[in-house]
Amino acid sequence: MDKVRKVPLRKCVGCQTMRPKKELIRVVHTPSSEVLIDPTGKQNGRGAYLCPDENCLKIAQKRRSLERALKFGIPEDVYAALAQQLKAAVKPS
User: Fold this and answer.
1) CA angle at 73 for the pair 68 and 78, rounded to the nearest 5°
2) With contact defined as beta carbons under 8 Å apart, do 33 and 72 qualify?
3) CATH of 9-89, one of 3.20.20.370, 3.30.1230.10, 3.40.190.10, 3.90.1010.10
4) Domain chopping of the chain, boundaries
């Protein structure tokens, strides 16, 4: 019998849907007080997950759910940088 591996699920802070961890993008608040996208998913700090969709980032910004998840106030320029990183991380296929 083959072992069936349990797929780790995480909730998107924007649209509130549960998806497999590998489908989501991790945003991390590092101990040095930076907020950035963590492509490896292993960076040190408090993390939150977003769908690879700009709309989810906009919803999270409007509801301030990303700030609550990271327990850190996020300035507007960081949201703009996150949007740019999100576009770069999600390559059109």
Assistant:
1) 110
2) yes
3) 3.30.1230.10
4) 9-89
- Helix axis angle, 76-89 to 54-63, nearest 10°: 160
- pLDDT per residue over 39-49, tens digit each? 898 999 999 99
Do residues 89 and 40 make contact, with C-beta atoms less than 8 angstroms apart? no
8-17 pLDDT tens trace: 999 999 999 9
Tokens 């609550």 belong to 68
Residue 36 forms beta bridges with which residues? 28
AA letter at 51: C
Fill in the DSSP letter of residue 2.
P
pTM: 0.85
